[in-house]
Please model this.
Amino acid sequence: MVSAGSDAGPVTDQLITGVNSVKAGVETVNEAGGINGRQIKLIESPDNANPTKAVSGLRAQLAKEKPDAYIVTAGTQVSSAVAPILNQNKILFMNSANLDETADPKQHPLAFNLAASPRVVVEDYLPVFEAEGYKKIGILHGNSPYAKTFGELAETVFKENGYEVVGNVEYDSAALDMTAQISALRDAAPDVVVFNAYGAPTGYVLKGMTKLGWDVPMLGETSVASTPLVTQEPPDGLLGLPEVKNLKIEVNAATVYDPAAEATNKAVEKMKALGGIKGAMVNVLGYDGVLLIAAGAKSAGSTDAAAIAKALEDPKVNGNAGTAVYGSYPYSADSHEPKLPRGTHTFVPPAPIVNGQMGASK
Model:
């Protein structure tokens, strides 16, 4: 079962792409013989990433037939809402968000986070700081739960590694103008601005920088890279305009086209046939979730949720599933958050992203 829909406000593109990624994963597994000889049947919950509707849809499905697994591809609030129900009903849960509770097998033994942890995202800034000689860091972030975590963790990690955080400013993600917050950060005179934003706030931040005439390097984290605004040309985007001339965005390796990356390219072709990929490859973690389930079931020789979960804690299983976004998902008996190594992400100038990738042909 997958949380789905086609009208989820600012995360509509992410949700549609995420659902297509799950469909592509199902096709890939079914074409290879299914899960232990059985074809996967996908049930869509048309909840539009609304947590209340997602809970209602899940309960309605439970009243008819319990699903073997559940995938959330967009919306941290949906993940938080359905996690307790899935846990109570012993349903395998692949979570494209990154929640502390679904990373803890003591609380949710059948849940697995697919997204990189905030610490991995933050630590991958450090090589850039060192290479560019940045010493004084400014942090700008939104007020969502993830954005707050990012801001707090970034300050901690940067200070632990000897960098001076001269400002850590929070903005209201619902605001239409960020110039006051940007001005406050400018007064602190950082060498570089690290910022978090998704969707419309990305544009307000970048336009605010231009409005104030502040010429400073900017490093946008993975949520910025997932915003089509920075990888599309006008009139839909800002690519080529002054707003992005100082910007580099954080992406995973799968976002940069590599003709030798067979698993990634196979997934991209599948998703192109299903309507394409809007945004970067970080939005297609659902594909990997399906392949991980199949790999766990094959290793366990069973579709029992507990048996699959146990199998996925084995590096031989989570590292050889044929996944597309990350080559492996290093889970363990102590943590169901993928312990991805430092260097998983890199920073690149904004460029056109076609079907999730930079540098690929249309």
Q: What stands out?
A: Residues 26 and 238 are 35 Å apart (CA to CA). The mean pLDDT is 95. The chain is about 40% helix and 15% strand.
